[in-house]
Amino acid sequence: MANSNSSRSGSVPSPARYGFTDASRAEAQLRRAGWWSDRGPEEAEPIVTALSRTPDPDLALHSLDRLRDAADAGWAELSRALADDSGLRARLFGVLGASTAFADHLVAHPDDWQRLRSDASPVSTLEERTSVLLAAVGAEGSGAPGTPGGPVAAVDGPDAVSALRRAYRGLLMDVAGQDMAGVVDPSLPAMSYEDVAATLSDVAVAALRAALSVAVAELKRSGVDEVPRLAVIAMGKCGGRELNYVSDVDVVFVAAQEADIPAATRLASLMMRVAGPAFFEVDAALRPEGKAGALVRTLDGHLSYYRRWARTWEFQALLKARPVAGDAELGADYLAAVQPLVWTAAEREGFVADVRSMRRRVEDHVPSELSERELKLGRGGLRDVEFAVQLLQMVHGRSDDSLRLTSTMDALRALGEGGYVARTDAADLVDSYRFLRTVEHRLQLRQLRRTHLFPAFDDGDALGVLARAVGLRSTGRNTAAQALVAEFRRHSSRVRRLHEKLFYRPLLEAVAKVPTAALRLTTSAAVERLAALGYTSPEGALRHIGALTSGVSRRASIQGTLLPMLLDLLANTPDPDGGLLAYRKVSEALAETPWYLRLLRDEGVVAERLAQLLGTSKLVPELLVRAPEVLRLLSDTPALAERDPMEASISLRSTVARYSEPARAAAAARSLRRHELLRIACGDLLGLVEPTAVFQALSNIWVAVLESALDVSIRDTAKSSGDVPARIAVIGMGRLGGAELGYGSDADVMFVCEPVDGADETTAVRFATTVVEQVRRLLGAPSQDPPLEVDIDLRPEGRQGALVRTLDSYLSYYRRWGEVWEAQALLRARHVAGDQDLGERFCRAVDPIRYPEGGLDETKAREIRRIKARVDSERLPRGADPATHTKLGRGGLADVEWTLQLLQLQHAHEHPGLRTTSTLDGLRAATEAGVLDAGDADELAQAWTLAMRVRNAVMLVRGKPGDQLPKQTRELNAVAAALGYPAEVDTGEVVDDYLRVTRHARAVVERVFYGS
């Protein structure tokens, strides 16, 4: 249909100007109502303007059009009232523009618009609302419904349900009208979220009482003359007077005595059966034993259960318990009896762990594709606020009665006023909680259905309507939608961020100022809290926290802000106590570093990652106090974990090259190595770097240090003679040659020299020896860093041999005196530093020795096996467990490496792919060459990689090298965390995994290496 205004003068307004998306239909509906002419709305301008301010003008007008048809003769009165009564316009249009359900109610009951008039007699108290609902079913009588002598409904069955449903919807509409009026007309008094939630809760309580009066009538008609004493206890949001428009109402039923239970159970069941179709579902699942338990128990029955069997979440639920219907005296007795149990629940063993576990289960319940939009259960949702507040109430409400409140908002304010939470944080959470609950209310108003799901972020229409419903307005619907999404994300993010801080803030406030009456938290309470979090020495932790937060300096203030979150994060690590001590040491060492605390405060990911590192590793904090700049990288994953190893090596060499003095050059090399070592360790522990990349990076940085030390030593030694008479190359051996170093590995090397033109061999060797001695002295100097041991024991003649030889000398030795184990050692030889041409010529020259033509004869193969057996029996440390020794144990590094090296000696002469110094590359090449079964190669590679990772993990955890899988539980937990196991893994599983993998590898070794 064409727009009816399309041919008119531009001065005639279009309904689109008023926010109607279907301008033609809107104009037709407005004309039928008498509010539009050829000149526009004219004197009906206030009505059309009010419609335009509703959340959904099209829905409001369409619903009004339906109401016009339904009202028939009454439409004239309604139309006049809308023209004269701005309050009615705001309330009625607000309801119609927000809710199809209330539109349906008004169409079914057209006269109910009258209750939204400004001069209508307000129904404002619980008693008045209860009277309205009782009158709907003709209930008369004094006293409380559901008690002897109380009002009994005159009707029951479907007639009672129908009457109650209509009256209840009318009361709900009263609330919705007041709630939405301020959206349509900002000049009217706004009804706050707290008032809306409290009023909805009162309406629900009135409904429960009315349902009870109908249930009593049905009970009496079934032949029960005496009404049993029954108390109805509201739980959840109804108990806290913070109910939604649509929600189940959680209750618990209490009978006065055992003899009353059959009749009381019948009465409770009847009440639930009436309330369901008339109002809302009454959920009694929070009763003892849940749905499997008795619907009604006596007070003693409840207490017996709570004292013996109740779990933590049941006491948490009781925080909001409130007698609302039935026998008031019995309800008061119930509340008085269970309150002491609630306020001692935090003393239960595993209390905090239970609450945290429940929080995880709640989050896990949300489908991943909906988690970002889930208002109630998702991250940054309502449950985050409620769980945190309830936990803090239960911990600190034991000694502070002011925290014993049922409302989340009231409890938050009390926590802020009492000093348990910073006032600004409490105010921010109140603001965000109010926003999220308001959004929830507006979503539920639409169809009066229970929902907590924010609209899809690309649903512009739904978002625009919701934005206007919560009071966000703009010049265009899309803009309002974008503003709403931004607000939603801002509040969700703030809730999640403050949730962690709030969870522990009271403890930190107390620790900083104990003892003070204002905070009402004793030292013993703080100790209990820390113990509940998992700190094995809470008194020690308390001292660390006190030292960090004492005083009035800015540093202490920022620490007081950071520590609540860090305590929580550290509690999730293998060693919370050690992590907190490490954090104190790092903080004290970096006390004068101006950006340190600001970085932790402003970059949440830095604090999270730092806590994980400190609670797992002793090596990281030792390095961190001397390389604090690495902290900045914790917020930049690519810079932390994706740096090219060659880039780091080049940077180190170029920096050290600027120094001519050996000691300063060595110090610079150590500093840069420390930085890289810490960077690699952080990336490794955080699971951001693959194991093979860790081995390569550690090897490259060692090579760069060697290169730098060699360069500065050559320059320094040449000062005395004025020239450089020799070329020097460094040959990497062992794991350095294979680029497979760990955090605590030595550097196995050999030094080869060659006279330059015009120099004699003796002078060249003497010069090179002086250089090598200086390299070893510089790198081997005492240091707090992991040692830089240059091991040259693999040279000809071992420790008795010359430090440096010429290439010809090496070849002469190997050809005349070399033993099979030396040929085996040369399999790992590669040039790593110094003169590249010389180093590569050395490697080519020893190829015939390490890759013997014709392979390895059986005699030499037996010799290798004999040596290996001797190593297994003699070199394993006393007391070591061969099953879990990563280097010399069964299926460990030596087993895998010797097996590969035997295959290389036997077959590399005819399979060039086997001529590699890398263990993993060699295993792949052996498979490709057909000398090793692919499955066997996989078993060996898996065992070798795991053993290397365990060695590295032990070094990271202990801060010193170790080849044995730890037996002590705490260390084993930390090793498991370093290996990437989830926090809840059983340490036995870690050991079992290692034993399984290495057992399979050992079987391959027995078959391939020993020929068994």
TrEMBL record:
Documented EC number(s): 2.7.7.89, 2.7.7.42
Keyword Transferase recorded: yes
Stretches assigned to the PII-uridylyltransferase/Glutamine-synthetase adenylyltransferase domain: 358-503, 883-1008
Cross-referenced Pfam families: GlnD_UR_UTase, GlnE
Cellular component terms per the entry's GO annotation: cytosol
Region (Adenylyl transferase) residue spans: 515-1012
Residues covered by region (Disordered): 1-20
Domain Glutamate-ammonia ligase adenylyltransferase repeated: 92-335, 608-843
Keywords noted in UniProt: ATP-binding, Magnesium, Multifunctional enzyme, Nucleotide-binding, Nucleotidyltransferase, Transferase
Record keyword Transferase present: yes
Biased composition (Low complexity): 1-17
Region (Adenylyl removase): 1-507
Catalysis performed (reactions): [glutamine synthetase]-O(4)-(5'-adenylyl)-L-tyrosine + phosphate = [glutamine synthetase]-L-tyrosine + ADP; [glutamine synthetase]-L-tyrosine + ATP = [glutamine synthetase]-O(4)-(5'-adenylyl)-L-tyrosine + diphosphate
Cofactor(s) for this UniProt protein: Mg(2+)
GO biological process: regulation of glutamine family amino acid metabolic process
Any coiled-coil regions, as ranges: none
InterPro entries registered for this protein in UniProt: GlnE, GlnE_rpt_dom, NT_sf, PII_UdlTrfase/GS_AdlTrfase
Enzyme class: transferase
UniProt function note: Involved in the regulation of glutamine synthetase GlnA, a key enzyme in the process to assimilate ammonia. When cellular nitrogen levels are high, the C-terminal adenylyl transferase (AT) inactivates GlnA by covalent transfer of an adenylyl group from ATP to specific tyrosine residue of GlnA, thus reducing its activity. Conversely, when nitrogen levels are low, the N-terminal adenylyl removase (AR) activates GlnA by removing the adenylyl group by phosphorolysis, increasing its activity.
Name of this chain's protein: Bifunctional glutamine synthetase adenylyltransferase/adenylyl-removing enzyme
Native organism: Saccharopolyspora hirsuta
Gene: glnE
